């Protein structure tokens, strides 16, 4: 019997990610000469006066970003680049599209170019630079795959992220926000017995939503989200799911589902009064990461 692809939380895989990062750094010894050349060029270029300072969001897919930051700090320092972890609070009003859990590199253009050349030599196609939605769409085009989404608690934020990228219509079939139980049943075909057994806040619900979306839009891949951006004391939450918990499912047609469940309220340290918006953005971004792991 095939096992279902299932990830419950980042804690379950943090040890594996650290091992993967260690292996990648072990492999980096073979490019040490190239790295020294990049650093030397960066130091030369950064000595120029009146250079403009830029910021670039990035992450290394499949690796724990805090560990990546720690290890990459020496390379960054040698290239005169500053690094810090991105977060919703310090990233809300700038141009990084509220992309959390990644890293922001800051420096002059030449220094950033040299630093990212080092990262590309170490991590190749595991390196994500800039807009994650744009990166996802590029991967979909490369694999000739189409995408659709069915959202509940994210309320259209995920679809907005995808359609904010110019040219997304060539791979994005469409999205639907089935916010009410009735819309989930009437549009996506979710059975009342499923909701009565597992609740609307469950893995089973997002699996059914994803399958319903694939059938509705005739797409190759579907993402579905459901959860609690705020507290729910109604009878719909008979399992007493906590505020901040979001269930996400990615289904590639004719393959087993990928599912994660995570309480995103735990990732918000400041300004909890606006946590609803933050949770919607965090869950939407994480769903794009889950899609990347599925293709």
Low-confidence stretches: 6-19, 27-36, 45-50, 88-100
What is the total tally of β strands?
10
C-alpha Rg, in Å? 21 Å
Order of helices and strands: EHHEHEHEHEHEHEHHHEEEH
- Could you report the average pLDDT, rounded to the nearest whole number? 81
Distance between the termini: 22 Å
Strand order of the largest sheet: 1-10-9-8-6-7
Shape: globular
Beta-strand percentage range: 15-25%
| Helix and strand composition category | alpha/beta
Helix % is 40-55%
What's the helix count?
11
Q: Give the biggest beta sheet.
A: 6 strands, mixed
In summary, what is this structure?
Helices cover 44% and strands 19% of the residues. It is an alpha/beta fold. Helix 2 packs antiparallel against helix 5 (109-123) and helix 6 (132-142) packs parallel to helix 11.
């Amino acid at each position: 019997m095939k096992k279902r692809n299932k990830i419950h939380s980042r804690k379950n895989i943090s040890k594996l990610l650290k091992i993967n990062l260690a292996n990648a750094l072990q492999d980096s010894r073979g490019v040490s000469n190239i790295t020294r050349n990049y650093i030397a060029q960066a130091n030369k270029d950064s000595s120029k006066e009146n250079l403009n300072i830029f910021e670039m969001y990035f992450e290394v897919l499949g690796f724990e970003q805090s560990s990546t930051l720690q290890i990459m700090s020496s390379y960054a320092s040698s290239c005169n680049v500053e690094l810090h972890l991105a977060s919703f609070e310090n990233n809300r009003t700038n141009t990084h599209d509220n992309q959390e859990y990644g890293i922001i590199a800051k420096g002059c253009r030449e220094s950033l170019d040299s630093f990212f050349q080092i990262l590309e030599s170490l991590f190749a196609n595991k390196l994500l630079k800039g807009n994650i939605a744009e990166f996802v769409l590029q991967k979909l085009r490369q694999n000739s795959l189409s995408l659709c989404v069915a959202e509940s608690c994210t309320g259209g934020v995920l679809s907005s992220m995808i359609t904010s990228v110019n040219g997304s219509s060539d791979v994005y079939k469409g999205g639907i926000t089935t916010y009410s139980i009735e819309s989930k049943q009437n549009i996506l075909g979710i059975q009342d017995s499923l909701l009565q057994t597992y609740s609307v806040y469950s893995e089973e619900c997002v699996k059914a939503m994803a399958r319903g979306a694939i059938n509705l839009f005739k797409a190759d891949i579907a993402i579905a989200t459901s959860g609690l951006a705020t507290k729910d004391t109604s009878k719909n939450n008979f399992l007493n799911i906590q505020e901040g918990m979001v269930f996400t499912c990615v289904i590639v047609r004719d393959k087993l589902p990928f599912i994660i469940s995570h309480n995103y309220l735990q990732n918000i340290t400041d300004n909890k009064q606006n946590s609803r918006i933050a949770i919607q953005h965090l869950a939407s971004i994480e769903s794009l990461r889950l899609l990347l792991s599925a293709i």
